[in-house]
Design brief:
Blueprint lengths: L3 E5 L18 E5 L16 E5 L7 H42 L1
Parallel strand pairs: 1-2, 2-3
């Protein structure tokens, strides 16, 4: 049962095939593998993905990671906004629903 997989200083162009068959994989490290430009389907058990060093700025992997980073920042902003707004919305809903409950 493979739980952790690490690629380091490799010359591979891609990770071959479908990694979904590694159903216990929860950590994948790709360090200093400059030729890897994309990732295959990854198992849903994966909890940690680490990518370090020498990625080509034009690779599709870098583009995907940039999009993911932007999405993460966007979701963080939504979470922060909703955390601030929730008490106000809760009080407003409570005041609107209290006449109905009475």
């Amino acid at each position: 049962m493979v739980r952790c997989l690490r690629f380091r200083d490799c010359e591979m162009r891609s990770l071959e095939g479908n990694m979904n068959c590694l159903s216990s994989l929860n950590k994948l490290d790709i360090h200093f593998c400059p030729n890897i430009s994309s990732l295959p389907d990854l198992p849903s058990s994966l909890q940690h993905l680490s990518i370090w060093g020498y990625l080509s700025p034009s690779s599709s992997l870098v583009s995907a990671l940039r999009c993911l980073l932007q999405l993460t920042r966007y979701l963080k902003l939504i979470w922060q906004f909703s955390s601030l707004l929730w008490p106000v919305l809760s009080a407003l809903l409570g005041s609107l629903l209290s006449p109905i409950a009475a």
